[in-house]
Design brief:
The complex is a heterodimer of chains A (76) and B (975).
Chain A: E1 12-15, H1 18-28, E2 37-39, E3 54-61, E4 65-74
Parallel strand pairs in A: 2-4
Antiparallel strand pairs in A: 1-3, 3-4
Chain B: H1 20-26, E1 77-86, H2 91-100, H3 112-127, H4 132-144, E2 158-162, E3 166-174, H5 178-186, H6 195-202, H7 206-214, H8 221-231, E4 236-243, H9 245-253, H10 257-261, E5 276-282, E6 291-292, E7 298-299, H11 302-322, H12 327-345, H13 366-370, H14 376-381, E8 389-396, E9 404-408, H15 409-412, E10 416-420, H16 426-435, E11 443-447, E12 453-455, H17 461-467, E13 473-477, E14 483-487, E15 497-505, E16 510-512, H18 517-520, E17 528-533, H19 537-547, H20 568-577, E18 588-589, H21 591-597, E19 611-613, E20 616-620, H22 621-626, E21 635-638, E22 644-648, E23 651-654, H23 659-662, H24 668-700, H25 713-738, H26 750-776, H27 782-789, H28 795-803, E24 806-807, E25 809-810, E26 813-814, E27 839-840, H29 850-885, E28 889-890, E29 896-897, E30 903-905, H30 928-939, H31 943-949, H32 963-968
Parallel strand pairs in B: 8-16, 9-15
Antiparallel strand pairs in B: 1-5, 2-3, 3-4, 6-7, 8-17, 9-16, 10-13, 11-12, 11-13, 14-15, 14-17, 18-20, 19-20, 21-22, 22-23, 24-27, 25-26, 28-29, 29-30
Helix pairs in contact in B: 2-4, 3-4, 11-12, 16-17, 20-24, 25-26, 26-28
The chains are: A alpha+beta (76), B alpha+beta (975).
The complex binds magnesium ion (MG) and zinc ion (2 copies).
Chain lengths: 76, 975
């Protein structure tokens, strides 16, 4: 089997811890459910991620070098 | 019109079903008669035009609210339906509920555990803003699986739905030939049964058994089942049992509130039985006004016609039922009533013939009023006709600034701007009014402080102007310097609507500077454009700051300038700065010529001459061009014509100025000036470059004719030779192919390989012809200049004009359609030669043969069809994309969110930068420090001041081109 996590085109996905999430939700003044979503079955998310977790995705960007995106894991 | 109701703030909008009781409560009157007006033309009471439903005739008073027409919005009435009918808008939900609930006790057939599960799913789906419908569908699917009700144990039947509004239960009923079936089973060869035995087995009396066998008694369900069990037969056939709307209503009435909650329906505002109508609301007359035709006859609205039909059938239904008509007739009338109520709401249901007008035109009923491009949403709310707009043909005027638009005087006298008169503009206001509505800077209306609006006429203007005083409003004509919006459809990007400053001009067309043609995608072959005069100060200020053409020089699409030199401007600056091939120097001009070139610009003094030739001072084209550049601009790039352009401290040292330097779609100099010196400097630069270039192309003279594309005989011979060679190659290829010796390329068939090789050979032939032609066209050839400078046309165009037009294609292949095995009857079947498959060996100058012409037309037709298809496809795609993205908004915290506050991007574009201001080249860096230094240097006279304000230097806003002139004249504000 191919390990998609190791593929160059798959950006780094990381499960955030609760403290980080809280701080970051506060920063944007949002609820967890206002975040963009990612389904639990997505091959790119780490194996330990479960529904309700928040994933931090670190992407390469031409203009800012790295761009961070956050997604809530939902069923599916 | 005076607005009496103050606007109200909408807190929330709720959607639900409406209670029939509510229909009755809000009804101004019950409607019982289908007649509208009596013989004297008065509306009939309790008829469809009952005066309590609102007023349409001016002067009359509303019988319900007492207001006059215009103030009264109208009032609903109602019709009591003789029998319930299905609401077409809810047929799918009705079907779902019939399938998911018990036919006996009406409970949702889900166990408590299942219900909990779906309630939980609903909660998550709602919090995640996903589709509740998915859960409802899943719940119904689950409930449908049960054959027996988990609450009362009743057997459930399949529900079939015949569109649009008929529902059946598929039940098993006793077959008509049940005696024969039973008899056959009793005479089973292996195990015959006597009537006596059957009676014993089933517990039915023997006499009954005999009656059943004789066909004189139909066994009830219990008896039937025991006989079936005893004899192991099936006595039933499937039967469709129609569910009447009244049955469905009774069924739904018994569904408990908590059961539908599981399906995501709020029983408080939506009871399912309300989907079956018993009362029909009658829209107010204001929603279906009747019009009086020229001949005095009244013509009623389509909705009224439909309501007449409904009332007529309703009455007939009641009469028939009271008279005790047979069930069949009642059912027919019921169906008819259903049809009329259905088409009243939607007259475009597939499978149902649309209700038609007497003339045969389908009626426009409720849903048709809302749907589609001309419907209420897209036609009346998202977009509508507006006042203060004008449309006419456009034509070019290179003397205008790119920020300006020439407005015909007859448009300027029609469009107005509101002046709030005060002490300071009183004089002007009076002068406008005194000029009247026809002399140009005049006025059309005035408004007194008491709100009375007076029309300014030729007769009263003198008198009225004396009365104007502070506090009045004057609707004056458009004058030079006013800001207006200018638009050309299709409005595909934001540069399709830009703000321009008005210049009032004679004649009938809008005039615009040619450099704004690219953003509008306009030309002057009859294009028309729209102008909108802005009507309040906020709008005008916003337009000036955000929408003025100079603010749109950079395109957010690719981060470079979209406005710049075009066509002759590029040829002109090329001629001005391109070195002579013989001397290697750019052209020289004497004092008169140089001053003349710079006449359209703000340069009123020539620099030091570049030298003296024959005792006359001269200036080079590059020096003249340099006068337009900012003094401290330095840059280096490769031009379109291939040489290196070097600019040092505002002096063009070397290189040719062409499309790569000042052109639309990313001219280096324009791009850099806009980003480093601001939009105002850039506007000045583009304006001046275009006027210098036009003067320079006029100085040299520039024209093109047939002779410019004609090559000498020896070149023609060489071209013919090149083509002849290619023909030989093709011949050889075909020969090898026919002998079966052609080797196929990897992944291709032999046929495909042959085609590819032929295409390659012929393509090479055309290129060779082009090269030969090019060799014989010298550098001063106008077509060559245009192609090389990037002004217009390409080398391919030149090749086709002077060399050889080349292979024509349809669908990317050589032409192979037409007759069987050949393209035209002039060729032998299966001729694969160049000429037989659409190769045009002539050039446009030498002229095409009839066969070539035909092939050329085939290829050309495909191009036209492609464009037509592409525009319609991309238009629809664009519409969907815009609708999907329209509600996204960048917030002050940098996030992009939709209207429900869901985050779409955490940082605008994931990098928080404007695509307009970011360089599109990898190595492009905006020299921020340099800009800051320059601004600070220019802003402060003393070092003291400079230090005090360092880091916080306000950039001067230049809101009008005329500011300088006005300021010189002592005017402080320009409005
Ligand atoms: Mg046109
Ligand atoms: Zn009223
Ligand atoms: Zn039941």
């Amino acid at each position: 089997m191919v390990n998609v996590h190791a593929h160059t085109l798959v950006p780094e996905h990381r499960v955030m811890n609760e403290d980080e999430i809280e701080e970051f939700l506060e920063e944007y003044d949002i609820d967890r459910t206002d975040l963009p979503k990612i389904v639990a079955g997505d091959a790119a998310i780490p194996d330990e991620a479960s529904v309700g977790d928040v994933i931090e995705i670190k992407r390469d960007s031409r203009t800012t070098t790295t761009a961070y995106v956050y997604r809530l894991v939902i069923e599916g | 019109m005076v607005i009496t109701q103050s606007p109200k703030e909408i807190d929330s909008i709720g959607f639900g079903l409406m209670n029939p009781e509510e229909y009755r409560e809000m009804s101004a009157t019950k409607i019982i008669t289908a007649d509208t007006y009596d013989d004297d033309g008065f509306p009939i009471d309790m008829g469809l035009m009952d005066p309590r439903l609102g007023v349409i005739d001016p002067g009359l008073e509303c019988k319900t609210c007492g207001k006059h027409s215009g103030q009264c919005n109208g009032h609903f009435g109602h019709i009591e339906l003789a029998a319930p009918v299905i609401h077409v808008g809810f047929t799918k939900l009705i079907r779902r509920l019939l399938r998911g609930t018990c036919r006996e006790c009406s409970r949702l057939m889900l166990t408590e555990e299942e219900r909990d599960e779906f309630r939980e799913m609903l909660k998550t789906v709602r919090s995640l803003d996903q589709d509740v419908n998915d859960v409802t569908k899943a719940a119904i699917r689950q409930a449908r699986k049960k054959d027996f009700c988990p609450f009362c144990g009743e057997k459930q039947y399949e529900i079939s739905h015949e569109k649009p509004t008929t529902y059946y239960e598929i039940q098993n009923v006793l077959a008509n030939d049940y005696p024969q079936l039973i008899a056959a089973a009793m005479q089973d060869e292996d195990d015959p049964t006597s009537p006596q035995e059957l009676a014993e087995k089933t517990g039915i009396e023997l006499a009954r058994i005999n009656e059943i066998l004789g066909g004189t008694f139909r066994p009830a369900r219990e008896a039937r089942r025991s006989i079936e069990r005893a004899l192991d037969v099936d006595l039933t056939v499937e039967d469709m049992n129609k569910l009447m709307p009244s049955d469905i209503r009774d069924w739904f009435e018994d569904i408990p509130d908590e059961d539908i909650e599981v399906l995501g329906i709020n029983a408080q505002n939506s009871r399912p039985e309300w989907m079956v109508l018993t009362v029909l609301p009658v829209p107010p007359v204001t929603a279906r006004p009747s019009i009086t035709l020229d001949n005095g006859q009244r013509s009623e609205d389509d909705l009224t016609h439909k309501l007449v039909d409904i009332i007529r059938i309703n009455q007939r239904f009641m009469e028939n039922r009271e008279a005790g008509a047979p069930q069949l007739i009642i059912e027919d009338l019921w169906e008819l009533l259903q049809y009329h109520v259905t088409t009243f709401m939607d007259n475009e249901i597939s499978g149902t013939p649309p209700a038609r007008h007497r003339s045969g035109r389908p009626l426009k009923t409720l849903s048709q009023r809302l749907k589609g491009k001309e419907g209420r949403f897209r036609g009346s709310l998202s977009g509508k006709r507006v006042n203060f707009s004008a449309r006419t043909v456009i034509s070019p005027d290179p003397t205008l600034s790119l920020n300006e638009v020439g407005v015909p005087d007859r448009v300027a006298t029609e469009m107005t701007q509101t002046m709030h008169v005060n002490e300071r503009n009183l004089d002007k206001a009076q002068r406008y009014v005194a000029n009247g509505p026809e002399r140009h800077p005049g006025a059309n209306y005035v408004r007194r402080p008491d709100g009375r609006r007076l029309k300014v006429t030729e007769k009263n203007c003198e008198e009225l102007s004396g009365k104007v005083e502070p506090g009045w409003e004057v609707n004056r004509h458009l004058i030079d310097g006013d800001i207006v919006l200018f638009n050309r459809q299709p409005s595909l990007h934001r540069m399709s609507i830009m703000a321009h400053e008005v210049v009032v001009m004679p004649y009938k067309t809008f005039r615009l500077n040619t450099v704004v043609c690219p953003p509008y995608n306009a030309d002057f072959d009859g294009d028309e454009m729209n102008m909108h005069a802005l009507q309040n100060e906020e709008a005008r200020a916003e337009a000036r700051v955000l929408m003025r053409v100079q603010e749109q020089i950079l395109s957010p699409r690719f981060g470079r300038n979209i406005i710049g030199s075009i066509q002759d401007h590029i040829s002109g600056s090329y001629l001005l700065t391109h070195p002579d091939p013989e001397t290697g120097d750019p052209p020289r001009f004497n004092e008169t010529q140089a001053s003349d070139l710079l006449r359209g610009t703000s340069i009123d003094e020539l620099p030091e001459p570049d030298g003296v030739e024959e005792s006359e001072a001269y200036w080079t084209g590059r020096t003249i061009f340099s006068q337009l550049l900012p003094d401290d601009l330095s840059m280096e790039f490769i031009s379109e014509s291939g040489d290196t352009v070097v600019i040092n401290d505002g002096q063009l040292i070397e290189g040719t100025i062409d499309s790569e330097a000042t052109g639309e779609f990313g001219g280096e100099i324009v791009d850099k000036i806009t980003k480093q010196y601001g939009t105002t400097r850039s506007r000045v630069f583009i304006n001046e470059v275009s006027s210098l270039a036009i003067r320079s192309i006029m100085h040299f003279g520039f024209s093109i004719g047939i002779d410019d594309e004609t090559v000498p005989p020896e070149a023609k011979e060489r071209i013919a030779e090149a083509i002849e060679n290619a023909y030989d190659q093709v011949e050889r290829l075909i020969e090898t192919y026919e002998q079966g010796d052609l080797e196929s390329l990897p992944g291709r068939t032999v046929d495909e390989t042959l085609e590819m090789k032929i295409m390659q050979a012929l393509g090479r032939a055309r290129d060779n012809a082009g090269d030969i032609a090019e060799d014989h066209l010298d550098e001063s050839n106008p077509a060559v200049i245009m192609a090389e400078s990037g002004a217009r046309g390409s080398l391919l165009n030149l090749t086709q004009m002077a060399g050889c037009v080349g292979q024509q294609s349809v669908r990317g292949e050589r032409i192979n359609r037409g007759y069987e095995g050949r393209t035209l009857s002039h060729f032998k079947a299966d001729d694969l030669g160049a000429g037989a498959r659409g190769f045009v060996e002539n050039s446009y100058t030498s002229g095409l043969t009839p066969k070539e012409f035909f092939f050329h037309a085939m290829g050309g037709r495909e191009g036209l069809v492609d464009t037509a298809v592409r525009t319609s496809k991309s238009g629809y795609l664009q519409r969907r994309l815009i609708n999907a993205l329209s509600e996204l908004e960048t917030q002050y915290d940098g996030t992009v969110r939709d209207s429900r506050d869901n985050i779409v991007q955490f940082e605008f574009g994931e990098d928080g930068t404007s695509p307009m201001m970011v360089g599109s080249k990898e190595d492009f860096d905006v020299d921020v420090e340099h800009i800051a230094d320059r601004i600070i240097e220019a802003e402060f006279d003393s070092d003291e001041e400079k230090r005090r304000f360092l880091g916080e230097v306000p950039q001067e806003t230049n809101l009008s081109e005329h500011t300088e002139r006005l300021r010189a004249a002592g005017v402080i504000s320009d409005d």
